[in-house]
Amino acid sequence: IQKENLKELQRLVDKLHPADIADLLESLPLEDRLLVWGLVRPEYDGDVLLEASDAIRETLITDMGAHELVAAAEQLDADEIADLAPDLPQDVMEDVFRSLPIAEREQLRAAMSYPEDAVGALMDFDVITVRENVRLEVVLRYLRRLEELPDHTDQLFVVDRNEHLKGVLLINKILVSDPEMLVADVMTKEMITLHPDDKAQDAAHAFERYDLVSASIIDHDKKLLGRVTVNTVIDFIQEKAEYDALNLAGLREEEDLFAPVLRSVRNRWVWLAINLVTAFIASRVIGLFEDSIEKLVALAALMPIIAGIGGNSGNQTITMIVRALALEQIKAGSAWKLIGKEIGVSVVNGLIWGGVVGLFTFAIYQNVELGLVMMLAMLLNLLLAALLGVLIPLTLRKLGRDPALGSSVMITAVTDSGGFFIFLSLATLFLL
Amino acid sequence: IQKENLKELQRLVDKLHPADIADLLESLPLEDRLLVWGLVRPEYDGDVLLEASDAIRETLITDMGAHELVAAAEQLDADEIADLAPDLPQDVMEDVFRSLPIAEREQLRAAMSYPEDAVGALMDFDVITVRENVRLEVVLRYLRRLEELPDHTDQLFVVDRNEHLKGVLLINKILVSDPEMLVADVMTKEMITLHPDDKAQDAAHAFERYDLVSASIIDHDKKLLGRVTVNTVIDFIQEKAEYDALNLAGLREEEDLFAPVLRSVRNRWVWLAINLVTAFIASRVIGLFEDSIEKLVALAALMPIIAGIGGNSGNQTITMIVRALALEQIKAGSAWKLIGKEIGVSVVNGLIWGGVVGLFTFAIYQNVELGLVMMLAMLLNLLLAALLGVLIPLTLRKLGRDPALGSSVMITAVTDSGGFFIFLSLATLFLL
To answer: What are the chain B neighbours of A332 within 8 Å (beta carbons)?
Structure first.
């Protein structure tokens, strides 16, 4: 029966697209995953590795011999090998490198030289170039001889003899134009060009805004280096969104769902440690007021309300500001305007929610002064949250850091410790 | 001087792409925004409205007369008008509708009939169809007569006389094939087809996996209805990522950076109210133990540590599970395996961080039993976080809800109230 099932499974795997195989592998516990991995057609190995997430890819590579890995890598283009390179053993990479034709070696070296968040890392070298002084008819004959065009070829690149980019010839334009016309008369000179050192994020914005399928990459002399295609951009956008989401939750990277326990612990410990430090600080702030709490124990039950709502409100502000920074919507002059607005919001919220909290406190403890202190503390903590909710991301940006990273932890630390301090010191001043 | 500046500004605006104008408008306070909006060429009005975010679009539409709005809408395709429709006044929509040719009226009605998260809402009607029994040469002549092809035309759709989809003819295939060949011999029958009722999320996955530029939409009889193109998919992915990020922070929708204070308050109040309720509950849990806190006031200073780290750890688990659910990686059988793994992680974390917290407590309060109670409470709260971090999203999914929505608030509520309860009751049992 085992054998029957295996045959069935083999048939199933044979019918799947590499991307679907990668997905299937991610959803399987390690043992089953390696069983299925063994059934994948060797010619798909490279593509599946490419499509799999980092954590899964590692488990697959560990399972493969050096020979298999070299064979898998050789099926891929230079830019794709560059994506795999960080995960491949040194000796495998050397073998792969030696097996490549000279031109591709150059491409691989170029692709590996760019940082992960640069346009160069998204570059694809599969471009078709034409000269501007030929007729479309000649271009058509040339294309026919190629037998197949690279994926996502929506335009050909018009270059001079020094490979300098002169314009682009849209495929759709070729189809609707008279074959007797010259490339120079049909090509477009208005085009989006990227530099390999541009931020990948900016390329993604350009694709989104201008609805591109591909865009050229040129160096500072306008020499054509390669192109970026929309499928790579989609992958980049998805990975970026995922990375942000994971980071917000305090996970260092995406995790194999079935990773061994100790691996998961390693992926998660940094943020827990940071949070522990901020929790210790908050705890010591409360410790300062132990005398007050001993005299009026209701303070202990009420203080988390002030800290909690402050944290929430601060995170709302931070999210707004981080989004606006990512979209470059904040100009130098508008910081004060934004702080003004957020302070306005927190005054209104402070009065509304402070009032609710004050009434709640009065209802439970029958103590008017305690209710008023709650209301005032809430208002002040929301003001603190608003002010730092704007200032933390703006400062991180000014220091050249990613404002999305860590600003949520910081604001929560401030509104916790700050909230406890504000509430307990007001209570000590007015109630005891 | 004012006039000089206006002229300068007019020149600048005239050079911008509609998407860039929309971005510029978003970054300006209301008064300046309306000034620039007045300078935009009328023929760009429709595109700018389309590119602007909901909050900004509203401020622009409020500023326009009915005539201007009708004129702007008339420049757009039916599927684009459908995107604007919810924001347009009723009488404007009626005028627009009446001004459309019959065929486009049908398309507009169709486009407006699908829910926002369905493939139908992404549909574009600009398709080129050909018959399978003609030569490529004839197709080429036909295309040449069109003078311009719709954007993102990477394939033509091959249909029979009843508009039933038979296959697709890739543009790149036309270019490299002999013009004497028949469409039937060059077309591909293996193709991705979508249904208008499919989830837009699934279409996005398909584009990402199979590197598509466009895909056909057919009804259940295989009749061709329209297509989806990659630019729409990118917009969808971006909007989804943004929506998720805003929701996580407790913002109902994206906010105009310069919105009036009361508008922002309205956008943010729901989550603050929900959090206030959970904070009240946590406060009452502490209230149950006021006698214990009175006797040992250190408890008040220590309890936020237990609650805080529990919340962090629970959010890590939830993020993992929500991501895996979104990628359909969790099969029926794996829930128990996942719970087992997360419990393993929290036992290890509980022992490590519980130990650290216990030592910290001992160092400050010189009380061994208190340190042990802290350690045990930490361990138990992390276990609670792990268990519910898996169960909450799985349950939401089973109930047919989006597991990304609200699960973070729920886990925090559980680890706060639960953490206070576990710690304070252990302390009452063992220390007093």
So the answer is: none
- Residue B16 in contact with partner chain A when CB distance is under 8 A: no
How does residue B409 score in pLDDT terms, banded at 50, 70 and 90? Answer: confident
Inspect the interface and report whether the beta carbons of A345 and B268 lie closer than 8 Å. yes
Task: Report CB contact under 8 Å: A144, B175.
Answer: yes
Residues 62-101 of chain A with CB under 8 A from chain B are none
Q: Between B290 and A245, whose confidence is greater? A: B290
ipTM more than 0.95? no
Taking only the tens place, the pLDDT of each residue in B346-358 is 999 999 999 999 9
List of domains in chain B: 2-116 (1.25.60.10), 129-248 (3.10.580.10), 261-431 (1.10.357.20)
Contact yes or no for A244 and B245 at CB 8 A: yes
Are residues A327 and B300, on separate chains, in Cβ contact within 8 Å? no
Could B250 and A315 be called an inter-chain contact, meaning their C-beta atoms sit closer than 8 Å?
Answer: yes
Q: Which residues have C-beta within 8 Å of that of residue B32, sequence separation ≥ 6? A: none
Residue B389 near residue B321 (C-beta atoms within 8 A)? yes
User: Nearest to residue A129, comparing CAs of A224, A29, A261?
Assistant: A224
Q: Do A308 and B241 touch (CB under 8 A)?
A: no
Please tell me if residue A346 touches chain B, with a CB cutoff of 8 Å: no
Of B279, B318, B349, the CB nearest to A272: B349
* B281 in contact with A, Cβ within 8 Å: no
Query: Which of A318, A341, A342, A428 is the best substitution to test chain B (most B C-beta atoms within 10 A)?
Result: A341
Chain B contacts of A300, Cβ < 8 Å? Answer: 286, 290, 293, 297, 299-300, 303
The DSSP string of B6-20 is: HHHHHHHHHHS-HHH
Per-residue pLDDT tens for B162-180?
A: 999 999 999 999 999 999 9
- Residue B362's H or E segment, with its range, is helix B334-365
Report the chain B residue with the minimal C-alpha distance to residue A147. Answer: B176
Listed as ranges, residues in chain A with pLDDT below 70 are 1-2
Interior CA angle at B322 toward B317 and B323, to 5°?
Answer: 100
Nearest by CB: B290 against A207, A301, A348: A301
Q: Would you place residue B293 in the very low, low, confident or very high pLDDT band (cuts 50, 70, 90)?
A: very high
Judging contacts by C-beta atoms under 8 Å, the chain B residues touching residue A228 are none
The confidence score (pLDDT) of residue A386 equals: 95
Q: If you search the block for the tokens 């940071």, which residue do you land on?
A: A274
Q: What is the reported pLDDT for A242? A: 83
Beta strand A155-159 pairing with A129-130: parallel
Give the H or E element holding residue B225. strand B224-229
Side chain identity, residue A158? V
Q: Report chain B residues whose CB lies below 8 A from the CB of A177.
A: 144
> Which amino acid does the sequence have at A200?
A
Which residues are within 8 A (CB) of A187 and not within 5 positions of it... i.e. 6 or more apart? A132, A158, A166, A167, A168, A169, A173
> Per-residue pLDDT for B85 more than 80?
yes
- Lowest average pLDDT, out of A306-315, A319-328, B249-258, B266-275, goes to B249-258
> Are B207 and A206 a contacting pair, CB within 8 Å?
no
A345 → closest Cβ in B245, B265, B337: B265
Given a cut of 70, whether residue B1 has pLDDT beyond it is: no
Cβ partners under 8 Å of residue A202, min gap 6: A119
Specify the pLDDT at position B51.
Answer: 92
The residue-averaged pLDDT of B285-303 equals 96
For the ranges A104-113, A173-182, B46-55, B320-329, which has the lowest average pLDDT? B320-329
CA distances to A36, A49, A61, B325 from A21, rounded to whole Å, are 9, 10, 15, 17
Judge: B280–A210 Cβ closer than 8 Å, yes or no.
no
Among B144, B255, B271, select the one facing A320 at the smallest CB separation: B255
